[in-house]
Amino acid sequence: MRLAANVVEREEGHLDVLVNMPASPVPCATFMSTPVEDVAAVLLTNVAGYVRVMHAFLPLLELSADPRIVNVSSGLGSFALFHDSSRIESRAGTPLYGAAKSAINMLTASLRATTSRYPQINSADPGMTATDLSGGQGHSVKRRHRRDHRVCYWRTRHSTGAYRDGDGDLPW
Ligand SMILES: NC(=O)c1ccc[n+]([C@@H]2O[C@H](COP(=O)([O-])OP(=O)(O)OC[C@H]3O[C@@H](n4cnc5c(N)ncnc54)[C@H](OP(=O)(O)O)[C@@H]3O)[C@@H](O)[C@H]2O)c1
Q: Could you tell me the distance, in angstroms and rounded to a whole number, from the CA of residue 114 to the centre of ligand 1?
């Protein structure tokens, strides 16, 4: 991570937007049969990984005139969507992944609320996208890039501490 930050520092001197999105696949085994070591490995990437990226890039963001962080979350991290039976998030059956994404949402909200040191910081849900992580299900990566652009640059341009997808605000 430090190496990546060094490259940005050398090439650009600062960073305007950090799109923070480390994730490793969640084991397919049922919850009870997933070894705790595998759970810890998932949380290390899917939660601690975000912190590691922020630690590495925050000094470069502080050199920007308009710095922002977009923590890529998921609708599966929303307690409100989980409790809405009309939403697919209530039926996803991915407790570990959802727990990690809820943690990312709380990280976003509480960093915003508890310190003025951080730049604009928002959580974003890119929607189901056909990547290795989703097993190829969802909309194309090209379409997602357009949505991500909208979420990262337009919808979050003048806001902070928000949680959004390409269509607007999501309930936490
Ligand atoms: N795909 C979906 O349907 C979907 C829906 C909602 C939210 N999301 C979220 O979107 C983000 C991107 O996921 P994706 O679908 O684009 O999957 P992806 O292509 O597999 O991207 C995952 C990223 O995490 C990086 N990564 C993996 N292990 C890491 C580690 N230990 N430390 C740091 N980085 C690591 C990968 O880097 P390498 O390429 O170098 O391995 C890759 O850039 C994730 O946060 C995911 O939870 C995805």
A: 27
